[in-house]
Amino acid sequence: MSDSKRLHPIVSILTAGKRVRNILPFFITILIAGGRESKLSLLISLGISLVIFILTLLTGILSWLRFTYRFEENELRIEYGVFVRKKRYIPLERIQSINYTEGLIQQMFGLVKVRIETAGGENEDEAVFSAITKEEAQLIQEYVSTAKQESRIIKTVEEDQKVFSMSTSELLILSLTSGGVGVVISAVFALFSQLDDWIPYKKIFGGLEEWALKNIMAIMVVVFIGFFLAWVISLFITMLKYANFTVVRTEGDFIISYGLIEKKQMTIPLRRIQAIRIKENILRQMIGYATVYIVSAGSGSAENQEETKVILLPIIRIKDIAPLLQESLPDYQLEPILISPPKRALHRYIFRTWYVIVPIVLASILFLKAWGALSLVLFAVGTIWAILKYKDAGWCLEGKQLSLRYRTIIRTTVLMQKNRIQSLKMRENYFQQKRELGTIEAFVKSGSGDSWAAVVDLEKGDIQKIYQWYSRKRPKETAG
Q1: How much is the pTM?
Q2: What count of other Cβ atoms lies within 10 Å of the Cβ of residue 179?
Q3: In percent, how much of the chain has pLDDT > 90?
Q4: Who contacts 401 (Cβ-Cβ below 8 Å, separation ≥6)?
């Protein structure tokens, strides 16, 4: 049994600050409404806001004081709640992994954020310690290790087998080929959309239309500069996020650590790996690089989505994936030889793209006249993209593994073991039936629900072969 412990006192400030931030719009609304009436109403509004502010600070401090944890009878026992006292008991043997995060504030005080993930994926069983000392985090790990009767002593990362360490050149390639530009631009638009009530856009840009028609080249330059700046920002963000990326293989886990400003460490038990995803965007495919993901049977909580589809190798040469991971993942065939859809399926890939693009092209030509003719470029690009989707599609059965490859925007190869596949679906519409074609879909379980892979317009006989492989009973393996 251990004495009850609290989180670091900085948690009380962080909790109070977060709650004040959440009710800040409410404060502003009260003050604006009170100020429009009279000075007395304004004073009353200020008084109400002050009372709410003080209560919010007090509840933040009380929530820290009331949160305690201890180890007793091979359980992690947590008690919390300001007004209603709640208790959560987590058996130590059910703890699957302990993940660490060091944000800027944690690093300033020598602290870590610890998230404990349990078997079963129930949200209420997950424990989060937002700020404890590294020594306390190590003690938690030792308690769990002792309770689970591990045969080895917990070793440091340096003593375990290093699987992958991203070099500076690889980090640069990762950043240069990432798709973070769209995220940055979306964030900027989202920010300005929230300022409609504060910035008089109509007055500022009221006469912009006439000016824009006369200065198209200037606008194009501004747009180009905007995209360039967004690209530079995304490049910088990616480098900060994935700096010092390291994968270490222990007896039964992958330990992944990365980050420069916000440092993270995740533990992925090998037995919980449901599938492997290999993703290649156009740029990375052209230079022979890919990103490798692990689909893990993690908890389904909102905070834990990152651990269910985690990046194992952010950037790696395609030819290096098998040599690097084969020893750690011996059950997987990491270089499957894929069977492509039949040639008669090609026109279906093209026509499916035309169904979307042709109406757009016709409408553009009809309404925009000469400028609309530029949409023919979209028609050409769409056709080429459809051919790429056809060429990239494929499947492979090898032993106990099903491999499927498909392309949306990114080419994705999914490797699944038979005993991890939750369900397999065969679909065929009227037009596929006429061509003896069909669609295969496979689902594996992950913490966020089902993760899927689907390949369209495969040979009907090939789909039946996959289905027979999956549905065949094997009594000897089941008995074992």
Answers
A1: 0.73
A2: 12
A3: 32
A4: 331, 332, 333, 336, 415, 416, 417, 418
